[in-house]
Design goal:
The complex is a heterodimer.
Chain A lengths: L1 E7 L3 H12 L4 E4 L28 H7 L26 E2 L29 H4 L1 H5 L9 H15 L24 H14 L3 E3 L35 H11 L3 E4 L2 E9 L4 E9 L5 E11 L3 H10 L24 E9 L6 E4 L6 E3 L17 E9 L13 H7 L5 E9 L8 E9 L5 E6 L4 H20 L3 E4 L40 E3 L14 H20 L4
Helix pairs in contact in A: 1-7, 1-11, 5-11
Chain B lengths: L13 H4 L3 H8 L19 H14 L13 H10 L28 H13 L8 H17 L7 H13 L2 H7 L10 E5 L11 H6 L1
Classes of the chains: A alpha/beta, B mainly alpha.
Chain lengths: 559, 212
């Protein structure tokens, strides 16, 4: 099979690469390791809990045996288990002393089907972070380089949100925001008046205004997104980029095919294509192209480069620097505070809003006021009102209990801190020297730990969260300051970082391998720092920008 | 399943319990053939009396009012299956605060909640719990419940049983859509409404179930 471009992966960035490259007129092969999933044919989406064998809660014994990592995702349920990998069938290794939960979705659409949809721009506090405090290597781009691409992505995927004029969380091309509930409105006012901080509704890739030309309806406020949404109301590959790419007539999709290596021609110093394994029968095949985009997900794209080692590149492709696999990151996160707000017991809400709120970063911006850390943290969370689930934690039986659970109960507000993760050489990926998967491909090995900076940030986040919720009249009942296990933010990134210098980075400012001009890596692997915002919107913007550059270079004969 | 035939429980045919499919079918009203589940030890199959006990206990937790009770809708059977399958942490190793409860432990260290509950309630009743008048059954279970929630430190096998009775009830159609409101497609979000006495909670607000 000969193509203009091969896109490895069909998730959030793979879909974007396929869309941009096919719309530019290239014949594109998109290879996905998982099964096909057709938009509108989500198996459990419309099922009522009483039609599910375990009422939607799932077979915990099965989960413990076959999904011990994936089950830790809060969106993992009986409804959504088909949208996550089976851990037994998809092993990975960890270095001694490392605990890392790698949460994955191997299917057409990848994690675009299960993502949290939070869509935030990064600012120059983020792109300038490495240069400012000396951790990691400097980004070769700044906000201005990416701003028009953020515009393009937001307008296409549909991001609802409120413009706030914050330099640390730049406004975008938003659809109308979803609404804050009564408690959140109150806390927003308190934070603004007493702290000068901003609580705003989550900027989420759920439509508040339909996009009928693209067959997408406005959000129905079901908040069951990870089952798949036939309304097309949240951005996924299936709802958005895939139909756009298919409409060009230039896209070929192959599913159930795991790419095991890139082919590299040492004479031309170009990649010539990919080799892949049919996961149904284990047979091997290959495809060739003028361009290769890696969008397999940060760790899997690095894995692929490492596993593409050859005589001409014995330590992995695009790794003349030797830094491939290093400085991986994930946000350090923890439940910073929970507070009760009984004073709002006369208020309630209706509908299941599919987003929470965010408290924008406020530390270490123009004043370095972090206690023991140099970067940022922000909070996500929201106020929810108890329903029948609260009955599990309370004494009482009989009609009193039944009557109590009949009505919405106590309001509680949750703030989850997300802290910047310092890029460190000691946090890295390599190939396990012994263990392989069922196709004989070496397993990826993860070495990862948070350090004192993340711990300091989350300690300050806990204190700040308690102070803020307390100032708003909440009764804080608990809070934590230790980072959760790595991977739990599901923002794993880095390993093939972008940088100015080919000696200290893998990719240039166009997400293009320094060593191999026709190879682009545009998923989370390219990240040189983590910021404290959710990264997917930035991955998409970088992908669209890289596609534009690649097509331009191709047309100019530069690659 | 490689079960020991001598261990076959009374009242519930071992073959019926393979994979718990029949029990799930019974509890949930779905075709057994459609259910592919973790296979369970036949020793976890309940006796007829245990099923009757869990039905009654469920009904005491959520009684029939203008809407059905939890026993009426099969929440007892659901709890039996769910406990065996480890929902609400029911298959985690358990350290009994009462040494006498050690006899209910499985080889994996988890406790057989149903057998424990049967013995505990019968002991509290000074005989057959199910034969006591309803007011006394209510009082006995209420005392067990109060003790289980009196201390955060002590782990009581009652908590997961109660949790799964509630889950079984509020995810059933009568519990979820008659007693509470079931709104699979709300279509809108009203952020701030007065909470009036006739406002019933939404059973499928899953964020509230998890965090509320």
């Amino acid at each position: 099979m000969q193509f203009d471009a091969i896109v490895v992966g069909s998730g959030i960035t793979g879909g974007w690469a396929a869309k941009e490259l096919t719309e530019a007129g290239l014949k594109v092969l998109m290879i996905e390791r998982g099964r096909p999933i057709v938009h509108g044919e989500y198996e459990t989406e419309m099922k009522d809990p009483w039609d599910m064998p375990f009422r939607g809660l799932g077979d915990a014994a099965l989960f413990a045996r076959e999904y011990p990592v994936q089950m830790l995702n809060r969106h993992f349920t009986e409804y959504t288990q088909g949208h996550f990998v089976n851990d037994l069938e998809n092993p990975y290794a960890t270095a001694p002393g490392t605990a890392f939960n790698w949460l994955r979705s191997y299917q057409l659409g990848g994690r675009s089907l299960t993502w949290g949809r939070q869509s935030y721009r990064w600012s120059d506090y983020d792109f300038g972070a490495n240069k400012r405090d000396g951790h990691g290597t400097d980004w070769p781009i700044r906000y201005a380089d990416l701003a028009p691409w953020y515009d393009k992505v937001e307008e296409f995927i549909g991001v609802s949100g409120a413009a706030e004029g914050l330099p640390q969380l730049p406004d975008g091309r938003f659809q109308p925001p979803m609404a804050l509930n009564a408690v959140e409105q109150h806390v927003r006012r308190t934070l603004a008046e007493k702290f000068g901080r901003c609580l705003t509704i989550g900027r989420t890739a759920n439509l508040t205004v339909a996009k009928p030309d693209e067959g997408r309806s406005a959000c129905q406020n079901r908040s069951i997104c990870a089952r798949g949404c036939s309304f097309g109301a949240y951005f996924s590959t299936q709802s958005s980029t895939l139909p756009a790419a298919q409409a060009t007539g230039n896209l070929t999709v192959v599913t159930d095919a795991v790419v095991e290596a890139l082919d590299f021609d040492p004479r031309t110093r170009r990649v010539t294509g990919v080799r892949y394994v049919n996961t149904a029968n284990g047979t091997r095949a290959s495809a060739t192209a003028r361009l290769v985009f890696l969008n397999a997900g940060a760790f899997n794209s690095v894995h692929l480069l490492l596993n593409s080692r050859c005589e001409a590149a014995p330590h992995g492709l695009a790794n003349s620097s030797g830094v491939l696999g290093t400085q991986i990151m994930d946000h350090a996160s923890t439940l910073s505070a929970i507070a009760l707000f009984p004073q709002f017991s006369a208020r309630t809400s209706f509908g299941n809003r599919p987003t929470g709120v965010v408290v924008a970063r406020y530390r270490n911006m123009d004043t370095m006021d972090g206690a023991g850390h140099t970067r940022g943290f922000s909070f996500q969370g929201g106020a929810v009102q108890a329903n029948w689930g609260a009955g599990k934690r309370e004494a009482g039986i009989g009609t009193d209990l039944k009557d109590r659970l009949r009505h919405p109960g106590m309001w509680r507000m949750v703030l989850v801190g997300f802290a910047d993760c310092i890029p460190r050489d000691s946090n890295r990926l390599d190939l396990d020297p012994v263990r392989t998967d069922r196709f004989g491909i070496p397993q990826l090995r993860i070495q990862f730990a948070f350090g004192k900076e993340e711990e300091a940030a989350l300690a300050q986040a806990k204190a700040d969260a308690a102070e803020m919720l307390g100032a708003a009249g909440g009764t804080v009942i608990m809070g934590m300051d230790r980072p959760g296990t790595g991977g739990m933010a599901i923002h794993e990134m880095g390993g093939a970082r972008m940088g100015h210098d080919p000696k200290t980075s893998v990719l240039n400012k166009w997400s293009q391998a320094h060593d191999i001009p026709n190879l682009f890596v545009t998923d989370g692997a390219q990240m040189a720092s983590s910021a404290c915002q959710n990264p997917s919107l930035t991955y998409m913007a970088l992908t669209a920008r890289a596609c534009d550059a690649a097509v331009r270079m191709l047309r100019e004969g530069a690659i | 399943m490689q079960g020991d035939r001598k261990a076959e429980p009374r009242g519930w045919q071992r073959r019926d319990f393979l994979g718990a499919a029949a029990l799930v079918a019974l509890a949930l009203g779905v075709p057994a053939a459609a259910v592919s589940l973790t296979r369970l030890d036949p020793a976890d199959a309940p006796t007829d009396r245990q099923r009757a006990l869990l039905r009654e206990v469920a009904q005491l937790v959520i009684p029939r009012t203008a809407t059905p009770g939890a026993g009426d809708v099969g929440a007892g059977d659901f709890a039996i299956v769910a406990l065996a399958h480890g929902l609400e942490g029911a298959r985690r190793p358990f350290t009994p605060s009462d040494p006498a409860d050690a006899r209910f432990l499985r080889n994996d260290g988890s406790i057989r909640h149903v057998a424990w509950l049967e013995k505990t309630l019968d002991t509290a009743a000074g005989g057959d719990f199910l034969a006591r008048p309803v007011a006394e059954r209510h009082a006995l279970l209420s005392a067990l419940d109060a003790a289980a929630f009196a201390s955060r430190a002590a782990q009581s096998p009652w908590r997961p049983v109660k949790a799964l009775i509630l889950a079984g009830y509020y995810t059933s159609e009568p519990g979820g859509a008659q007693e509470l409101r079931y709104e699979p497609v709300p279509g809108r979000f009203d952020p701030d409404l007065p909470l009036t006495p006739d406002f019933r909670a939404i059973s499928n607000d899953w964020t509230a179930v998890d965090f509320g």
